[in-house]
Specification:
2% strand, flat, mainly alpha, MST-like, Mini-circle protein, DinB/YfiT-like
């Protein structure tokens, strides 16, 4: 990229924020959720929403742009990657045959993230479907300490790993979005 976009934000209260507190759907009044499971699910929901917010308002070309060279990452690639990872997590807790990869060979989630609206629409549909399926599979386990799947991973560990994965990629999304159109904010 030869020309960097000018940095900007929609926030007027705090210029380092993505949106003003009254307009940010992640900001909630009152106390946080009660209990470990509810807290973990709340953090996961917040990071999922943050990823979507970082992609809002961009067209297929902008979503597919690899804006931080030499990385192959794009915002669309992150959406596809997280759909693939949700499926992988279900494989971790299953005792059966693993589900096939959504996008094929390794890194196809990023390499196949091309600037076509049909690819964008499919990526969001894949992500929603895979998130719902993994959420449903984990809901079957009331005990966060229960060990599941061939690897005997604790349900708690899987939930924390999901939060970590989304949080890490939301950091990538911050940089990718800023390089696409200059919008800043956490």
């Amino acid at each position: 990229m030869s020309e960097q976009p000018e940095r900007w934000t929609q926030a007027t209260v705090h210029p380092d924020m993505w949106a003003d507190p009254d307009d940010d759907p992640r900001d909630k009044e009152g106390a946080g959720p009660d209990g470990e499971l509810a807290t973990l699910e709340d953090f996961l929901a917040g990071y999922r929403l943050t990823l979507r917010m970082k992609c809002e308002g961009l067209d297929a070309d902008q979503l597919a742009r690899r804006s931080v060279p030499p990385s192959t990452m794009s915002l669309l690639g992150l959406v596809r990657h997280l759909a693939e990872v949700e499926r992988d997590w279900r494989n971790w807790i299953s005792d059966g045959e693993p589900l096939p990869k959504l996008y094929g060979r390794r890194d196809a989630d990023f390499h196949g993230a091309v600037a076509e609206q049909a690819v964008v629409d499919a990526a969001y549909a894949d992500l929603e479907r895979e998130q719902a399926a993994t959420d449903a599979a984990l809901a079957a386990y009331a005990d966060l300490g229960e060990r599941v799947g061939e690897e005997r991973i604790a349900v708690r560990e899987l939930l924390v790993h999901r939060i970590e994965e989304y949080a890490r990629h939301c950091g990538h999304a911050d940089l990718l979005r800023e390089c696409v159109d200059g919008r800043v904010g956490q």
